[in-house]
Amino acid sequence: MTPRVVEPPASLGMGVSVYPSATAMVWQGVGHLHEAVAVPGVRLAPGDALVEVELATVCGSDVHTVLGHRPAPTPLVLGHEQVGRVVALGRGGAKTTDGRRVALGERVVWSVAVPCGRCARCRRGLPQRCVSLQKYGHERMRRGWELSGGFATHTHLLDGTAIVAVPEELPAAVLAPASCSTATVAAALEAAAAIVPLDGALVLITGAGMLGLTAAAMATEAGAKVVVSDPDPERREAARLFGAAAVADPRAAPESRAGLAAALAKAGGRASAPTIALEFSGSPSALRSLLTAVDIGGVLVLAGSVSDGPELSVVPEQLVRRLLTIRGVHNYAPRHLEQAVRFLAEAGTKYPFAEQVGAVFPLAEVDAALAATGSPRVAVRPG
């Protein structure tokens, strides 16, 4: 794909035509297949960038959207986990999170969220919850921002997007999830470590999907002993490959060899009560089990409950007497994307991240990718 700069009036931004035309796979709503829409050109405002997508992975939230389990505006270009190369820049160029100018041809990942940088929440250090937040793969397709998601040949990065350069040698399958699952885990671990240091901690993780597996590896690298609980035996075995010292079946009898108590005792020895609990499954029963299991002075971080569900019953007296902290994590700040890329650069090939991406579909078969099961991630390759 060769971008060509078209010179419009400066007030309109920089026009960039792409030949052959860029293609976006557009979802019209529940029960509809994706439609390929040609986008022959984009208009890049100062600070914007155009990136050619190398690989996009399918996040669970993409699947939930097309199944109708979460509301979404349409028409919509889904996809928010991807890696690609910069092929065009708006006037003045764009910058990476460390303040360096982005170069044409540079391989990058970018944040799922675009904050305004000016509102009260942004000024409080919560850009991920900006009052006028825009999110790749979540916004209604509109004139001027047609290439707004990862299920396309190109993505139009808006000014204010956190952009991080990534190593050339790392496989795309390792890097693409950085923009969602890896960065979200970095945010969750930071939230936990603000209360209890990770080094030497006993960490209990519920859910061994992409988030849980990533958390197991990141916590292990930080010096923690990790126990992962998941009802799927294949996922439990995968957790061992990602550093888990022990695994548990939440359906097993409490005192059985496959149960949580035995796993915690195996990993923690005498200190068998976890001081950090991370919930990535969204299961109400998992939430209840973590509240019961976490030790006095411990912290429970919730990151998997992103859809409506039953209320969680919490006894205030238990919070007080057990000195517990409950924290929620949704989206992430630019520094967490930096941490995600740094971790993958150092340990991305130490653990089998690439193997967690199963089938790879061509862009035109994005509906098949969204329907595929059996792996923590499947991928879409536009090329």
From TrEMBL:
Keyword Transit peptide: no
EC number: 1.1.1.1
Entry annotated with the keyword Oxidoreductase: yes
Organism of this sequence: Leifsonia shinshuensis
Alphabetical UniProt keywords: Metal-binding, NAD, Oxidoreductase, Zinc
Molecular function terms, GO-annotated: alcohol dehydrogenase (NAD+) activity; metal ion binding
The protein's required cofactors: Zn(2+)
Domain Alcohol dehydrogenase-like C-terminal: 211-345
Cellular component GO terms, alphabetical: cytoplasm
Protein name as it appears in the record: alcohol dehydrogenase
